[in-house]
Design brief:
alpha+beta; BirA Bifunctional Protein, domain 2; 2 domains; seven-stranded mixed β-sheet; 13 helices; binds zinc ion
Length: 456
Amino acid sequence: MTKNNDLMEKIVSLCKRRGFVYPSSEIYGGFANVYDFGPLGSLLAKNIRDIWIKKMVQERDDVYLIDGSILMHPKAWEASGHTVAFTDPLIQCPACKKRFRADKLEGWQLKKDNQTGRWEVIKQGSLVCPDCKANLIPTVKEFNLLMTTEVGSIAGEKSKVYLKGESCQNIYLNFLPFRDTMTAKFPFGMAQIGKAFRNEITLGKFLFKVREFEQMDIEYFCAPEESDKLYEEWKQTRFNWYIKEMGLSKERLHWRQHSPEERIFYAKDAWDIEYKFFNDFEELEGVHNRSDYDLKQQGKFSGKTLDYFDPTSKKRFIPYIIECSGGLQRTFFAVLVESYREEMIKDEKRIFLKIKPSLAPYKAAVFPLVANKPKLTDKAKNIFNSLKSEFMVAWDDIGNIGKRYRRQDEIGTPWCITVDYQTLEDNTVTIRDRDTMKQERFKIDEIIEYIKEKLK
Ligand SMILES: [Zn+2]
């Protein structure tokens, strides 16, 4: 086993041990490729979402947040091409009935037609089931990744609807009401964090390939002739966001351009931001110039004209779309991979998450030095209560101080505040820093300012 597989296992273990991520439905033996965020994971995910909204919406004047439903008119998915083209090449083992992606089986090479969703076999590889070693039949089926459900009281084709295969589609459908009601200055964008569902055939690496996930999307509408320039600007903006706001290191991030075969036929240009999770670089976010395809397609299928009249140039046109589509679970996973640390302190292993304080689930933890001295616990409770209205803070009075520090280190809490006997005399506490483990004394009424200053 390589060192990196080790790291992966350590992160999965930490996620479960400390309430970041639980496998779904574990009491029933689990439910493949679906995970729940636990108490700590929910806070980390929320912080990622909040920072994304702050930077992409709040601090800009041209991007507006929306929050669309998962269910949409099924025609939208015909228009987008998903009902036919959103496929993986499937081979099913006749013996054990396990399903595999043909392009992931040894020695196989396939090519997908992005318009029809058909997979052409270029080179046939192994015909042995990786699981039970039975012989496979070399018939490749197109397997659609869209999940379906039914609405209404009568089952059948007419009531079939799709769960979102990608979260952004309803942004295109909302272009018209947005254009007509918001008096937004062009060019403008709509941002949305929403769920997407995919019937993945193969099992993924922890949070990397999951059947239900969240996407953080910006669809930026612009004039065709401005799209190249704006595309470059958005590429910069999004790349820097991962470094500056998520704390990912520049060396582990890179751009990868889609090859001509891979690029969807209507896209003008397509690059992915990739992060080196373990040995390989894998996609975090796609930043694509989608031309006017989406609005044209939804216009064609709905019979509406999804265009924009520019009062300055007096021109009417169908806007181009620059799309920035990032995965919340993947970003979450990348933040953990980036921040996981182990070090030896006097023969004892210390595990800590060197996470940006702005992302940390708890900004601080408050401890009374010992749990059985009411004077200390009362004082500590007062501090805890006063911090609670400002930040997410943790309370811990179980075990000795060393154990409590270790627990907070593992969940990335940047500052631990301890109330000791000196506190009772001079109203000072110690604040211990997660990364340096240094302790300094501060006055109680300086704590909030101290944390706020550090969070800037
Ligand atoms: Zn088999």
